[in-house]
């Protein structure tokens, strides 16, 4: 059943100071109140300057000719005559003109307009709910060159719409730090999970495959071997991973199924990385030639994540909440529709007048970001790598080669 404009609807809005949800009741907005994607995009990062753009050249003023007293006197007389003639003509026109119309007793009321909310206002709202890192990453996305994976499989492999690997500028290894990630409890839990499975049989097979080409050496330090290239390091020496759940979609699902008192508003880690993986890679190892084995003494832990808005084929587009310039809200009915793959997610909600500041909360979905890309031919999905947390193992991992 489709919702009707003006109908009552329950939602929960962020209480930014308390970092919690505040139960609210509002109304479903009329259909013409919708999220805007019309604001001009920010300057694209790395966009080449056109050859036609040139600096303006100041044209020098002409030199004055030598003044002639006789000529000046004659020109002065002509100007006086023209001024008198012009004044007389102006007076004649004024005498013959009709009287001006009377001003109306009541001034016409200005037409009210709904304060616009553009999709590019979301980073500002993120900062107000306490998610500055997520806001910075979204600003980076808006300013990026057009880049996106057509399918989830392309996303996993880092293949863009042109069928080629992401450009180097779409690999971000500086914006998110592993120490910042580890400030969040669920990231620490993910790290403990990762460390507990470093020596599983599958992990040992991956380690052996990675180190076998170097078995004639005395030892190896993979980060130096890869010349500090995180993409190569991840591809050649990563051997284990552990998921850290926390996508906004998962948060909204938890919100519906669990008590409000246990679920806070999306934090900065959710806005920045959503659901992500912690990875372990070999950081240092030595080779036991006598026993034909390798011994891993140190590992590096880091995050790799895709900042993307890709939906799975056949599913409703992922619901990212209702947003205003100051708040994020969850409308359970919208989320239930998304979970049921119904997809009625296009209705804003309002408290009071639609003309009041921040009264309207607009639904946002993955497809809104894709529509923005098509409209402006800009906006780039990118891959995030954190820096590495390197740890010495209490119990080294020995693998047969």
Summary tags:
401 residues; alpha+beta; seven-stranded mixed beta sheet; six-stranded antiparallel beta barrel; elongated
SSE inventory with pairings:
Layout: E1 8-15, E2 20-28, H1 69-96, H2 122-128, H3 132-143, H4 152-157, E3 171-172, H5 178-181, H6 185-196, H7 201-211, E4 219-220, H8 222-225, H9 230-237, E5 238-244, H10 248-257, H11 268-273, E6 276-288, E7 293-307, E8 319-323, E9 328-330, H12 332-339, E10 349-350, E11 360-365, H13 366-376, E12 382-385, E13 389-400
Parallel strand pairs: 3-12
Antiparallel strand pairs: 1-2, 1-9, 2-10, 4-6, 5-6, 6-7, 7-12, 7-13, 8-9, 8-11, 10-11
Number of helices: 13
Strand content: 15-25%
Number of strands: 13
Which runs of at least 5 residues are low in confidence (pLDDT < 50)? 48-67, 255-263
Going by helix content, strand content and strand pairing, the class is: alpha+beta
Give the overall shape, derived from the CA principal axes. Answer: elongated
Order of helices and strands: EEHHHHEHHHEHHEHHEEEEHEEHEE
Q: Report the average pLDDT across residues.
A: 82
Q: What is the terminal-to-terminal distance?
A: 63 Å
- Largest sheet, strands/sense/barrel: 7 strands, mixed
Rounded to an integer in angstroms, the radius of gyration calculated over CA atoms is: 32 Å
């Amino acid at each position: 059943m489709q919702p009707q404009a003006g109908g009552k609807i329950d939602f929960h809005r962020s209480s930014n100071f308390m970092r919690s949800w505040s139960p609210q009741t509002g109304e479903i907005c009329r259909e013409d109140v919708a999220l805007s994607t019309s604001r001009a995009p920010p300057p694209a990062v790395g966009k080449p300057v056109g050859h036609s753009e040139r600096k303006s050249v100041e044209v020098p003023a002409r030199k004055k000719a030598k003044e002639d007293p006789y000529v000046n006197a004659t020109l002065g007389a002509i100007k006086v005559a023209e001024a008198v003639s012009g004044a007389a003509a102006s007076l004649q026109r004024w005498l013959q003109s009709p009287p001006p119309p009377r001003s109306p007793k009541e001034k016409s009321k200005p037409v009210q307009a709904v304060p616009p909310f553009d999709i590019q206002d979301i980073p500002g709202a993120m900062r107000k709910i306490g998610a500055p890192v997520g806001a910075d990453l979204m600003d980076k996305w808006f300013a990026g060159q057009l880049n996106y994976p057509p399918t989830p499989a392309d996303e996993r492999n880092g293949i863009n719409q042109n069928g080629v690997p992401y450009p180097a500028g779409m690999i971000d290894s500086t914006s998110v730090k592993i120490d910042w990630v580890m400030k969040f409890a669920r990231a620490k839990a993910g790290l403990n999970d990762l460390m507990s499975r470093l020596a599983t049989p599958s992990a040992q097979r991956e380690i052996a495959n990675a180190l076998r080409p170097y078995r004639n050496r005395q030892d190896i330090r993979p980060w130096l071997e890869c010349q500090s290239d995180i993409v190569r390091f991840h591809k050649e020496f990563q051997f284990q991973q552990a998921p850290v759940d926390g996508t906004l979609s998962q948060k909204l699902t938890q919100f519906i199924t669990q008590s409000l008192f246990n679920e806070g508003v999306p934090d900065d880690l959710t806005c920045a990385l959503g659901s992500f993986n912690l990875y372990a890679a070999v950081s240092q190892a030595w080779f036991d030639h006598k026993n034909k084995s390798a011994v891993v003494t140190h590992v590096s832990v880091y995050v790799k994540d895709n900042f993307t808005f890709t939906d799975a084929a056949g599913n409703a587009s992922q619901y990212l909440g209702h947003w205003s310039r100051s708040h994020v809200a969850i409308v359970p009915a919208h989320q239930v529709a998304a979970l049921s793959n119904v997809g009625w997610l296009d209705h804003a909600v309002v408290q009071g007048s639609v003309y009041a500041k921040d009264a309207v909360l607009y639904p946002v979905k993955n497809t809104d970001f894709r529509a923005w890309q098509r409209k402006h031919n800009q906006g780039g999905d990118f891959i995030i790598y954190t820096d590495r947390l390197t740890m010495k193992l209490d119990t080294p991992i020995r693998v047969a080669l």
